Amino acid sequence: MANAPLDFSLLLKAGLPTRAYVADEVIFREGDKAEALFVVQSGSVEIHAGHRVVAILGPGEFFGEMSLVDPAPRSGTAIAVTDVTLVPVSEKQFLKIVSETPSFALDLLRLFVRRLRARDGYY
Amino acid sequence: MANAPLDFSLLLKAGLPTRAYVADEVIFREGDKAEALFVVQSGSVEIHAGHRVVAILGPGEFFGEMSLVDPAPRSGTAIAVTDVTLVPVSEKQFLKIVSETPSFALDLLRLFVRRLRARDGYY
């Protein structure tokens, strides 16, 4: 079954300010309070959980959304692999986007469902 | 950290028609096409995945939402444990609720995030 493509491009089109990190810089650490999700505009970011690399993210992808959706400390550490430009999206901005753009909320729901399925296949 | 309570009660307040099942009746089977999620109005429902019971649901709880959010065949079988009254919510009704009620979409996002955390704790 083909998965419908998910479109999160409006996160990059919202005209929000960017933030630059140099290679090897820590973006956030496990245990940090979550204040934003981050969209990768350029460069590459690794997410570490304990000693595992659990994700490598490139342009157009985002991370840190789970702690933002349901407030909790970061449970992974995000590190710039290369020089990186990110677009931070605050909780307030995120809630505004979800409220005004149901298709974004639906695509985010679909993303989470696909992650759940990838973990255990349960309905 | 206390989890904020999630409120899905509007699914029961939408005035949608109910559907009755008798004890031991199959509501849907693994592999079935998904046409609705079901809210339990009364009684108890078990979800089986293979030979495991993966969930037991009571009044106010719902099931079958994952296949509805992201179309896919049912990956579990739902069986009425007692006589049961359910409220089926079609994809069209579900999309309408998400579009008109951002707080519902947000609570559903939170539910999925909590499930993901329960599985592997990753951010």
UniProtKB/TrEMBL annotation, chains A, B:
GO terms for molecular function: DNA-binding transcription factor activity. It comes from the Bacteria. Signal peptide: none annotated. PROSITE patterns: CNMP_BINDING_3 (PS50042). SUPFAM superfamilies: cAMP-binding domain-like (SSF51206). Transmembrane segments: none annotated. Gene3D superfamilies: Jelly Rolls. Residues 16-115 form the Cyclic nucleotide-binding domain. GO terms for cellular component: cytosol. This is Cyclic nucleotide-binding protein. It comes from Methylovirgula ligni.
